[in-house]
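Dear support,

I submitted the protein below through the web form. The confirmation email said the job was done, but the results page showed an empty box. After a refresh the structure appeared. I'm attaching both so you can tell me whether what I see now is the final result or a partial one.
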Amino acid sequence: MTMTHTPPTEDGLSLKFWGVRGSTPVSGPDYAEFGGNTPCLEIRCGTRLFVVDAGSGLNACGLHHRESMPKEIDLLFSHLHLDHTAGLPFFKPVVFNPERTINTYCGNLGGDSAKAALDRLFSPPLFPVTLDILPCTLAHHGFKAGEPLTFADGSRVDTILLNHPQGSVGYRFDHAGKRLCIISDIEHSDPWPDESLRRFVEGADLLVYDGMFTEAEYPRCCGWGHSTWQKGVELAKAAGAKALAIIHLHPAHSDATLRAVEDEMQAVMPTAFIARERQTVEVGEAMERACSTPHLALIKTA
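What the results page shows now:
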């Protein structure tokens, strides 16, 4: 069963997952349900668009919105590791349009923007061309995680520094009485949950969290900057979050593995689910009912 895509409403807060894998894209029949693209999230505050991260899912996002992308796109990076940046030159309907501007925001470099890092990444011999040949305008903005981002139209996005190699940024969107928190690429602390993070996500209608590892896998991966769904549940419950979505899925975890994990997770938190590529969530709307059957109730395809 699928649902037709519904456009954002003036007063709604919505999230669409264009990429939910971590580290590297995957493909094949074992990944058909949850998807194989690396992180890219589309957030709509009413009709106001934000994009979080430029993983390989950014290509599909651009193709889907070929005719409807605004002239200015605000791209918020959690950080600049390859799985969160590799899709940028393939955002084709945007980067090949001279009328478009992409504003990038980077907050884990002590105030520096992403320009120098992206210019190194997208240049020979690592990449055949440089970004400055693209017809679009790239405007890079740096900030320090913990500072709020404010925009000319009055929009505000709050930020927090996360525990990840070279740092990562979490984002909080408040709109129309609803709260969405994106907390990916984080390694949980001891003790947990971290009090400043708990306050940051307190009362979230939807908390999106990095659950890359199982508890059995995590001890071999300490220091890699990722977490488990169990720690996501602990944070959600401590903060009074109403629903939880797990992203940054391990590239080796098949659909069968993830469905089993989701069943285990929902046994302790019924409003938790594992995110699926191209899944749309209307934040705060009947989350408990929807999360019980996310493959039926939440996926909206174009």
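Response: this is the final, complete result; the empty box was a page-load delay. The first helix runs from residue 57 to 64.
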